[in-house]
Design a protein that fits this description.
PPM-type_phosphatase-like_dom, PPM-type-like_dom_sf, alpha+beta, PP2C, 448 residues, Phosphatase 2c, domain 1, 19 strands, Wheat Germ Agglutinin (Isolectin 2), domain 1, single chain, PPM-type phosphatase domain-containing protein
Length: 448
């Protein structure tokens, strides 16, 4: 249920009653606790673990009406085969209008899926997903900018396949993960110029200017912004009138949960401007996802009121033998981090690391936040050269190689002065790549 301030009155008193009732019901439904040693033993013996349940809830209060969200819990990698199911949850926080947020909501998922090679098995699909997310975000941005509209949107896009969670984000919406043991992890990176030094340096190196708003008398006020345009963010989809150094290339993080499960809280900045990640997670522990989302919104409004659109999705990834996620007390991360966190890359062959990760709550599979397209698409992007026709790695359009950029082709150089060794790009996507890297003067289209 989506709650809008304009169409429905939301009684905090009624919410409190539901929450108190729900906590009592949850305490009665809790299954017997499984000893931690038993859980470790199961993992080490590689016992088959059934696919988890995914339960979700959402709540929203509108101030400007520019927040949109996407919930698709019934997607399938192979159409018609429920065994290949995965879920998608996303938040789009628009600015300067709603067109970009609506366009991204309607087109982004299809653009991402079109960049994944057909016929891939599950492991190959998951490995291809981070790169496909990059291609899908950039393609959606190009398509929207061709419409000639000037609005923009942040995006936090979450794909859940079994115990694997993949998050791609641009802007300042956020996704956090709350796992057993009370450890809260941030799965996104905020692209606000005020807080992100690396993004400030990238924007200025690409031809933009960063500074505060000048008012009468020369006084500077407000957060750091990118000029032209005055946007506070360094990454988004849309924003045609700002400059192409504001890029749509997302930060991507992929993790695998243990069979204890976990809770995702995905929310627009109307939540995070008020609540820290820890406070948001702690405030709704022990509640079903639908009530948890309402409580997070309520907590955000308690201290500052409704200053911005405020949207929250809560997604629980629950073991199949549990009705709800059990509530656990907050524990000190510095004591437990060695037990609960393992990390490996997608191509890792380190057996010791993999063994540690197998018993951890969260195993990090992939993380990359570079804004350089060559670094994100990689050198081994699949291509079918048998027909002499190449498919653009971004827009997925088939074209002759002469019309675009191929492997090791020509005098194209990255900011590190290395030859382009990425996949085939058509002419339009190559121009977009160059513009994002500041290699030509950006001439934004402004509708008057």
């Amino acid at each position: 249920m989506v709650i809008s301030a304009r169409s429905e009155q939301w009684s905090f008193g009624n919410v409190d009653t539901l929450i108190n009732m729900s906590r009592t019901e949850v305490s009665r439904m809790k299954p017997p606790l499984v000893p931690f040693a038993t859980l470790i033993g199961r993992e080490l013996r590689n016992e088959k673990v059934e696919k988890p349940f995914v339960k979700f809830g959402q709540a929203a209060l509108a101030k400007k009406g520019e927040d949109y969200f996407l919930i698709k819990p019934d997607c399938e990698r192979v159409p018609g085969n429920p065994a290949t199911s995965f879920s998608v949850f996303a938040i789009f926080d628009g600015h300067n209008g709603i067109s970009a947020a609506i366009f991204a909501k309607e087109n982004l998922l299809a653009n991402i899926l079109s960049a994944i090679p057909q016929g891939a098995n599950r492991e190959e699909w998951l490995q291809a997903l981070p790169r496909a997310l990059v291609a899908g975000f950039v393609k959606t941005d190009i398509e929207f900018q061709q419409k000639g509209e000037t609005s923009g949107t942040t995006v936090t896009f979450v794909v859940i396949d079994g115990w694997t969670v993949t998050v791609a984000s641009v802007g300042d919406s956020r996704c956090i993960l709350d796992t057993q043991g009370g450890i809260v992890s941030l799965l996104t990176v905020d692209h606000r110029l005020e807080e992100n030094v690396e993004e400030r340096e990238r924007v200025t190196a690409s031809g933009g200017e960063v500074g505060r708003l000048n008012v009468f008398g020369g006084n500077e006020v407000g957060p750091l912004r990118c000029w032209p345009g005055g946007l506070c963010l360094s990454r988004s989809i849309g924003d045609t009138d700002v400059g192409e150094f504001i890029v749509p290339i997302p930060h991507v993080k992929q993790v695998k949960l243990s069979n204890a499960g976990g809770r995702l809280i995905i929310a627009s900045d109307g939540i995070w401007d008020t609540l820290s990640s820890d406070v948001a997670a702690k405030s709704c522990r022990g509640l079903p996802a639908d009530l948890a989302a309402k409580l997070v919104v309520k907590e955000a409004l308690r201290s500052r009121g409704l200053k911005d659109d405020t949207t929250c999705l809560v997604v629980d990834i629950i073991p199949s033998d549990m009705p709800v996620l059990p509530s656990t007390p907050m524990k000190k991360q510095n004591v437990l981090s060695s037990l609960f966190f393992g990390k490996r890359t997608l191509n890792s062959t380190n057996k010791t690391t993999s063994k540690l990760s197998a018993v951890g709550v969260v195993e990090e599979l992939f993380e990359e936040g570079s804004a350089i397209l060559a670094e994100r698409l990689g050198k081994d992007f699949p291509m079918d050269t048998s027909s002499g026709i190449f498919k653009c790695a971004v827009c997925q359009v088939d074209q002759p190689p002469a019309e675009g950029l191929t492997l090791n082709s020509g005098p194209f150089f990255s900011p590190a002065s290395k030859p382009w060794e990425g996949p085939f790009l058509c002419t339009n996507c190559r121009k977009k790549k160059d513009a994002m890297e500041g290699k030509r003067t950006s001439k934004p289209t402004v509708i008057t």
